[in-house]
Each structure stands twice: as C-alpha cells, then as structure tokens.
Amino acid sequence: MDPDGPCCEQLFSVHNNMTMDTDNLAVNTIRCLSADMVSKAKSGHPGAPIGCAPIAHVLFSDLMKFYAPVPKWMGRDYFVLSNGHASALMYSMLHLAGFKLPMSELENFRQFGSKTPGHPERGVTPGVEVTTGPLGQGVSNAVGIAVAAKVMGHKYNKPNFPLFDNHVYSIVGDGCLMEGVSAEALSLAGTLNLDNLTVIWDDNKITIDGATDQAFAEDTIARFKAYGFETFVVEEGDTDIVGLRETLAKAKACPKPSFVAVRTTIGYKSAKEGTAAVHGSPLNAEHLAELKGALGMPADKFFHVPESVEAHYKGKGVAREAAFEEWSQMVEAYLATYPENANVVKRIISGEREVEADAEALIATLMEKDLKDSFPVGKGLSTRKASGEVLSALYNELPWMMGGSADLSGSNCTRIAGAGVFGKDNRDSRYIPFGVREHAMCAISNGIAAYSTALVPFDATFLVFLGYCVGALRVGALSRQRSIHVFTHDSIGLGEDGPTHMPIETMTYIRSTPNMADWRPADGDETIGAYAWSVCCSEGPSVMALSRQNVPHLAGSTPAKAMRGGYVVVQETTEAPKVVLISTGTEVSLTIEAAKAVEAAYGVEGCVRVVSMPSMVVYKRQSAEYRASVVPAGVPVVSVEPHHSMSWAGLSHFHIGLDRFGESAPIKALYEHFGFTPEAICAKVQKVVAQLEGNVPALGFVQVE
C-alpha cells in the first residue's frame, strides 16, 4: 500500500458527475419501490420512506463507505435506521446498492420467511446492522457503535493505517427523539464528544396521532446544541439534494457529533402527503398510480428500476470495490508492521468470538493465573465482589471486552483497577461512564456488540433497575447479541433499602425472555462458570444476578459444574433421596443448612439431595438424561429462592419464595419474617413430603411429539 496514495475517504468525494435529473430519478425510484412494497404487502409504512428517500440516496450514493459483497467489512461506515417502521426504505437501498437482496425479496416484503421483515432485524437481512422498530433503540445502538469504533480506532490505528475510522449515520424520526432512551444516549454521545456520529432527523412534523406540536414542541436544535452536538438544518429536504449532500458532508467533517434536521414531507407527492394517514397505511391502487405520475415515473410499472439508476449504483460499486481492496492491502501491511497487535486486530476484523471449546482454557487461565486462591472454601464473600474479581481478570485477559456501570461502579464492583475512564479527553480506556442512564446503557451495549461480534460488552446496575432496561434487553435478545449485564443487590438480602430496591418479579422476566440467560451464582467458582459460559457459550444476553451480602464458598462447586446450569452440590448417601432441595445464589448455602435440619428431623443422615441451579435457562438446555441424573423422578422437589414462584413451575413441586414485595429492615429480620431460615424451610419441606407421600407427580408439561 502506498501511504501517500489516496485514502478510502477520498474515493467517496461528495462532488460527483451526476446530473440533477439522475439524482431525482434515483430518489423517485426509491420512493416508488418503497410504496410498491407496502402496497403489495397490504401492510407497512409508506410515508417515511417516501419522505426520507433523498437522505438515503445521498448517504448510499455519495457519503457512506461500504462494500455490498462483504456486508461486515470493518472499514465500512455504519447505517442505522432508527425509525425502523421505514424498513421499506432500508430494503430499497440495500437492493439498489448491490447487497444480496434480490427484487424478489422486496416483492415478498413482510411475508413469512422473507429477508424483508416488517422492521429491520439483525442477522436476517444483509446490510442491517441492528434490529430497530422500538423507537429510540436504533439511535442508542448507533451511539454504542460509535463508542466501539472510537475505542478500537484509538488503540489500534497507526499513522497511515486508519483501520477503524468508521462513521456512524442514524436516521431518526420524531418518535425516536421523544423516547427517553434516545435522550439518555445522545446526552452521553455529546458528553463523550463522539465526532464519528451523525444523527439525521426526518423532521416531517407528523406522528400517528397527528401533528407533532400537540405533544412535541421543544426547540430540538437547541436541545442538541445543549448536548454538545454541532447542528445543521436542510430546509428543503424533499428536493434540495445538492444542499443535503453538502450539509451531510459538513456534518461528517465537524469535530463534534453532528445533528442534521432535514425538513421533509411525509408521503411527499402522494394524495395524503403531510398527513398522519400516510404514516402506516398502504396507498391504494389509485393513489399509488397518482404518486408515480406526480413523480414522473411510469404508473403501470411495479418494482421498476430504470437502467440509468441501476447503472449509477453499479458504478458506485466499482469504486467501493477498489476502496475495499485498498483497505485489505492496508490491513496486510499493518499486520506485518505491528505483529504485536495481530491477534486482536484479526479477531475484530473477522468477528471471531469465543466458542464453547474455549471455555475450559479460559477457566484454567482465570483460576491458575488471575484468580488463584481468590475463593477458598468457607471464605465469606458477596457474589458481587466475586464478580468484580472475575470481571477485572476478564477485562485484562480480553482486550475486546469493554463496558461500565450506570453510576454504580463501587456498588456493582465493576471498576477496573488502573483502567481509567473513557471520555472526550481519554480514549485509552475501555471503561465507559454511562451515568445514571440504565436504558441507554443496555442499548449502547447492543451497539458495541454490533460493531464486531468479537467484542464482549458489559454493563451494570442494581437488579431492580432491570425494569428501566427492558426495551434494550429485549432487542438484544431478539438480535442474539452477546452482552453481559451485571445486576447486583439481587434480593431482599439488600436489607434496609427496602422494597423499592428489592427485585421480586425480575428473575421471572429474565428466564422467560427467549435467547436470554439467567445467572444467579452461589459463590466464586459458580461466578467464574457464569462468566465463562457468557463469554464462550451464550447466544444472546446474559444477566448476572449478584448479592450484596456475603456467602460462604461451597465445598461442592466448580466452574465446570456451574456451566451445566444446575448440578448436585450435596449428594445423598442413602439409596435414594427422600427429598430434593433446589436453590440458587445466596440461598444455596442456606438450603444446605436446611437440608441438615430436615435430615435431623427424619433421623436419617444423608437422605436429602441439594441441587444448586445458577442458571435455570442453561439447565433446561441440558439433555433429558443429565437433568434426570440431577433431579430424579418420583422424589418430592422443593425450590428455595426469594423471588416470584412463577418461573419455578415444572421444576419443583413447591416453591419457598416471595410472591409479594419486600420490606425495609435488616437482612436477618427479613429472612426470619419471610421464612428463609433453616428451621422454617425444614418445616415446609416436611409438610410437602408428607402431602406427596406415595403419590409424587411428574414435573413439567406433558411432552407431545
């Protein structure tokens, strides 16, 4: 590579030889393609795609770096359609730009099995970076992508080797800017001075319920200036393509994050332009023909792309191929020049992530090097502190791990010694100060994960505040994005702070969300296993539910056992157990003491089996044979956990838990009041055993082939 030769950026100069006629023809093609998709499906949102077509054309035609045959090229710019209901626009652009999305997929919009679902979904459509639709999530993900690009670029870019110089563009609608999560994320983006982020506002002044000024009348430009953004306005966004191109180029070049307000008309040139009626309803045949006529397009043609438009985008693809090849050569030269960075750089570029086979080696590294002698048997230590030790070790072992806390670093035990804090004046750190912004924090983690699948994002707050994070957690689970959510103060064991801070229903939500894993470890070894599984085996987000109070290190625990989700921590010595007790987290040691009380009550030593179940989700994924070896049939099963009973259905015959909110009191008083003592548990267990004597029902639902 010639370091004095043209850089990738120069290959995408905003000055090109297109005529305005070709520009307008391309824009109107996008408008009609989008309208055709919605009308054929008889479902969707035509208004925003029609209005935003000029923005999308300028971005995909002139400004953005990407190479359609390699959608995950790490030299690309990232595009996030935060107003995901405008998905027809996204699919039109991906098709025209040469991504593997044939016209047949556009014709199959919103149909079962298509690559063009109702809202963009990561992993379904080539070129879609993140799943959007729930408003505000996409632009918050964009902030995370920008953070990751800044961290990786500062660490690994070298003079004449701009490996990671990605710019992030996000189109937002009025609804995105009304959502609280976007305010949280964009406030942080300004504070961190993410100058690689451009937010483009489709300012059409219409929402589903009507004019925006009935609910959204603030000075949005002033708001973004207050955040620390450079702001721009394009007054004639429907037609001023030259002005739009110049403004977006200026926005990209400025030394701050940029916000571009583009005044558009929803459903431009359609019969219902400028009204809420065109937001989420297809144009009928008459109105569709009228739209095409008003735009100078053939009214009798559907899914039509003029040859000149197709040729234009193909021509752009030739330049992009050259840029991709140049960047690839630069990478080879970089790896030869900086071999000490080769492992990390190749991993980021390829998106390579740990797999299940790596877990054993990772555990060995942690236990033999970083955490040697950290968790001796019998030592009292809260699982949040155990987590802090494991997380620090992982942070130092995995240069592709990054994250932080929502202003609770000390309480969550996530502060990394010597790591510093990422900020506008410190790009060296991978520790992110999210501030008191729980929802944005989790959405930003999703964005970090989207930058490269090699990255391992983590974040932290109190478990009870998971409720603030649900929107982002759900999208992360839907997208199968690996992230680790460190949520501490996990039960009534937090004591005097009381019911406002005591999670009761939270574990049920976690366990019932597809692709999300619950982890409530009982000691340090189980905590190591939880993290090893989350790094190496997860297919989505993992939630760590960690204690404030100390717990003893168990004699029968190991990280490998914990990674099965559930295992026998105390084996009965009799021929068969009289009862099986299952518990999680801080209550496992309590349940072991209760088991001794039960055995004393029956006068039979060793007649109780105790199972530790740090992850119900992971345990359920084990084979039927393994689960039968842990919890045998025909034996009464009692579960113990100070959380709602709902998630235990099918796993135990009786649950000792909490189906009500807690109280404010010292922990000892709370555990006694709610029956979490060895004596109280023993009494309940005896009643269950007596009631089920000779007639123990099977656990779980009936299995039907």
TrEMBL record:
Keyword Transport: no
Active-site residue list: 438
Catalysed reaction equations from the record: D-sedoheptulose 7-phosphate + D-glyceraldehyde 3-phosphate = aldehydo-D-ribose 5-phosphate + D-xylulose 5-phosphate
Any Pfam family the entry gives: Transket_pyr
Residues annotated as domain Transketolase-like pyrimidine-binding: 381-553
GO cellular component annotations of the record: cytosol
Gene Ontology process terms (BP): pentose-phosphate shunt
EC number: 2.2.1.1
Family, as annotated: Belongs to the transketolase family.
The protein's name: transketolase
Organism: Kipferlia bialata
